[in-house]
Amino acid sequence: xxxxxxxxxxxxxxxxxxxxxxxxxxxxxxxxxxxxxxxxxxxxxxxxxxxxxxxxxxxxxxxxxxxxxxxxxxxxxxxxxxxxxxxxxxxxxxxxxxxxxxxxxxxxxxxxxxx
Amino acid sequence: xxxxxxxxxxxxxxxxxxxxxxxxxxxxxxxxxxxxxxxxxxxxxxxxxxxxxxxxxxxxxxxxxxxxxxxxxxxxxxxxxxxxxxxxxxxxxxxxxxxxxxxxxxxxxxxxxxxxxxxxxxxxxxxxxxxxxxxxxxxxxxxxxxxxxxxxxxxxxxx
Amino acid sequence: xxxxxxxxxxxxxxxxxxxxxxxxxxxxxxxxxxxxxxxxxxxxxxxxxxxxxxxxxxxxxxxxxxxxxxxxxxxxxxxxxxxxxxxxxxxxxxxxx
Lengths: 115, 159, 97
Known about the structure:
Chain A is an all-alpha fold and 115 residues long.
């Protein structure tokens, strides 16, 4: 009984924090100015937001096959999301879309520093 | 051969976990689909140490641990930037890829993409173009914080 | 617990709405594909939450399937964009000749 209550509270905290992050990511889609910045907003919803919501649900399910399925959903999302966003970003770059409001001289100097 | 065996074991375990029914009909369907998948992967020639890296273990636990911590903190950082607490300063930087094998380059680029706030865009002549949302994130990457994390000496078994 | 999960479902739907608006507005085709990718991720989470609201964990299989389809959909859309550009360039060159 008491254990159930603890699991419920953990679920409540994790799921509500995850939904909050999801809404921030959705707002980011509108607040950020150009395509390349919006990639980062999607990065939030793909990693921590889905992790928090799915782990909150796992606390409800307990140690059953359902939890294994939740872990698999998370792993699929986690491993496909960087591939999808790299392929998007690379396609956009090859298409010729250049990042906006970028201090070019700073990028040049960084380039010099690094090599 | 070892890779094929481990791949078929992995696929069968996945089938058994996901189906949840253990009668003759469904198990034989599972065996058929595992064999079909193995046949297709052989035809596509994707069963190699890159497509199915079983030799990556041990050293990876520490890497995943540190990477998940980094993902957590950078999530908070980007969320604060979206809410307007911290400024948004998009940057484009060029990082030198001095990893020894293709696999560790892939891991490096994917780790950069996985952490919100930085995304790899393009690879050209051994340089990786990275877009970051903040100046601090750009400096961190240029200092090689992420490059240090990548486990050393990851090469394929056949190389 | 169901009230909380229903609230979570509403929050996820609100995020999906924001992504959908970006998909409709998006200045470039990549913004649209990015928004559709985000929409798909949130749809997976919504299906997972719905499985727990309705008390039928079998629905999670749909979430699993959709998480894979979403990835394939993004890659397919990007290939279409790339092919379209190559086709348009070829057409321009042919017209010039």
